[in-house]
Each structure stands twice: as structure tokens, then as C-alpha cells.
Design goal:
By secondary structure, the chain is mostly helical. Helix content is 78%, strand content 3%. The longest helix is centred in the middle third of the chain and has 41 residues.
Amino acid sequence: MRVDAVLDGLADWAHHVNWIYFVSIPIFTGVIGWLINWSGLWMLFKPINFHGFRVPGLREIAGIMPRKVQEIPGLMEGGVGWQGIVPARAAKMGSIAVDKVIAKLGTPAEFYAQLEPDQIAEHIVNVFRPDLPQLVHDVMMREHPRLWRDLPKPVRQAVIDRVQAQLPGVVKTITDEIGVHINQLLDPKIMVIDHFRKNPELVVRVFKDVGQRELNLMVAFGFIFGFLLGIPVAVIDVTFEIWWLLPILGVFVGWTTNLLGMWLIFDPPEEKRILGIKVQGLFLRRQDECAEVYARIIADDVITLERIGDFLMDGPRGDRTRQMIATAMRPAIDKAAGPLRGAVNVAMGGRRYDSIKDSFAMEAVGRTITPFRDADFSKQQSEKIRVLIARRTKELPPKDFVEMMRSAIKEDEWMLYLHGAVMGAAGGFLHVGLFVWHWIPGLPGH
């Protein structure tokens, strides 16, 4: 009897439903779901730099606002506008990348050893050798031009030849010294964070190159999730026939659509079996493939021999690097002077000789490290870096791999969900305006 009553009730409900209106709701929520995820990706990655305007006093007001509000890009700088969440969090992405992957390569000394310092030394010698005669000439002409001009040409050439003969040993000493002190000279974390902060477009490239397939799926599934969620929404709406119900339910649909999209990509990190079906975040299923892409970007653009050279010379500890190289050069200059040293001391005095030695050492510092900045040589070495980073990234536990990629947006995901909720509500109002208040007579609320 109860079953008959339920069936009769359903039949009566179906008889009074305007099926055009009913079907329009899940189609509408599907389209809105697609738009939510598409525009959500835009919010994630664009614009690269902050676009908006400054409001006097807003920075001070932002300082007393809730932490979640302070996280809105640009607000803490007193700006009203937008910057993509990922580029806005570029420095944080760099920090996590170091902690999760690069730090696992070992200490800077171990990392430096993988770059084969002997090859680096050989390259420095090859690049430096042709410039050496001119360097000796320039230093002597600056420090004691008269003596240098008065020296017979064979004697001048003998000095240059001895310096050149000492060069491989000197450079080997320098690269060895860099290796010994690299833990104090090189800070990979500062180097990576600084590079990501200055080049936020690189972080966007990491996301897009590594996970473009999953991001496209997220947009496509926006329609599917929106459509499926729209079916119960349509049932509720046509049952209660209250015009403001659809916008409220739209908030739920929009929020949930974005939530499901993020879940689809990142959760669960570990493979699970539910009713015999493999369940795992789409991004995690391609960890090995993504690791290769990620490693290539880091090796080609972030941790390069070229950038290591820049950091050693111009980074926060650059003065220490220069002093260390100069100190290593001075004994070699004494050896190069050889039997001429006594005559030079007599002619110029000990202080003058020391001044020439110091001048030559400091001049040689920049030229010694310059080959680090050789783009072609750096590219050759990048393959070693790529292999190292790819191997470590593949070895990461899935949970750490997800955190490495998701960390830049994790704290800001609420903005995506809120954006989905607002768009869902707007879609609900739009549907009401089109179908209830506008041109279809006989519908609920008309």
C-alpha cells in the first residue's frame, strides 16, 4: 500500500513538472561548472604580475584583517586588483621545491661533486688561457708600466709562459677550494627562491608543463560535476517552487564543483581500491612522467651552472668567494715569477711586488669564474642536474610529490571555492531571470 502511495505521488509530481524547465537546470549547472573551472584556472595562473590600483591606507587596514583576507594577492601591498595565485606564491613554491627535492640531493658539496669539478676546471683553463697574456700585460702596465716596458721581450714572454704553465694547477686549486667551502658559499634555497620570485612566469610554466593534461581534465569535469549536481538541484527546485532556492543551491553547486575538481587532480595521493576500482589523484598517476618534465625545467632554468656562478660571485656571499679565489691565486703568482721574483723585488720593492700580486689575483678572480656563466657549457652540465633531480622526484612519496606541486596554492584554494560559489549563485539568478521571470509562462514562480 505504501509503495503504491509513493508511486502515485511520484506520478503526480512528474505530471506537474515542466520538463523543459527541469532539464534546463542540470544543463545550466553543467555549463556554469565548466565556466567555474575554466575561470578558476585563469585565476590560478593569470595575470603573471599584479594588475590593479593602489588605495591609500588599505595596506594598514589589511594588516588588521583576518589572515585569510590578507592572503588575497595585492591586498597586503595596499592594492585592489588581482595576480594569479601561483605567480603570487612563486617564492613559496621555490621554498617547498628545495625542501622536498633539491635538499634531498645532499649537501651543496655533494651536489657540486656531481657536476664533476675536474671538467669545470678544464673548461675554465681552456677559456681563460687565451686571455692570460693580455691580463698579465694589463696588470703590469697599470702597476709598473716603466719596468714592464723596460723588460726585454723574451723576459716578459717568460713571465707570461710561467703564469700559463701554472694555470691548470691554479684553477684546480680554485675549483677544489670552491668544493671544500661550497656549503658556506652556496645556498640552494636562497638561489631557487630568489629566482622563482623574480621569474613568477617560470612557476606557471612548471604547473602547465607538468600538469597540463590534468588541468584540461579539471575543466572538462567541471561540466560533468555541474551537470550531475544539477539533477538533485532540479528535483528540489521544481518540488518546492521557490524562486530564490535556485541561487542558494547554486552556491553549493559552484563550491562543490571546484572542490571536486581539485580532489580529482590531487586526492587521494596514495593509490586506493574501492570496489576493485583504482582510485588515485590523476596527477599522481603520472609521477614518473611529471618528474622528468619538472627536472628538465629546474635543470634548464633554475639550478644551472651559469646561475651557480652568478650566485657564487654576486650572491650574498660573493665577497667571500672572491677573497677565497684571490687567496688561492697569490702563491701561483709567486711560482710564476720564479727566478725573476728577486729582480722584481729589487727593482720595485717588496710592497710594490705585493701590490702587483694582489692586483693580478683580483683581476683573475672574475675571469676565473666567468666560464661558469658559459651558456653552452652550462647546458652540457644541466643534463647531470636533470638526471639527479628527476631521480629524486620519482623517489618522492606521493604525499610529498603532491605537496611540492600543491603547496603554492593550498592556502589560497578557498578563493577558488568562493569564486565557484559566487559564480554558482550568479548562475542561479541568471537561470531564474531567463526561465522564471522572463519568457516562459506557466513555470514555478511566474
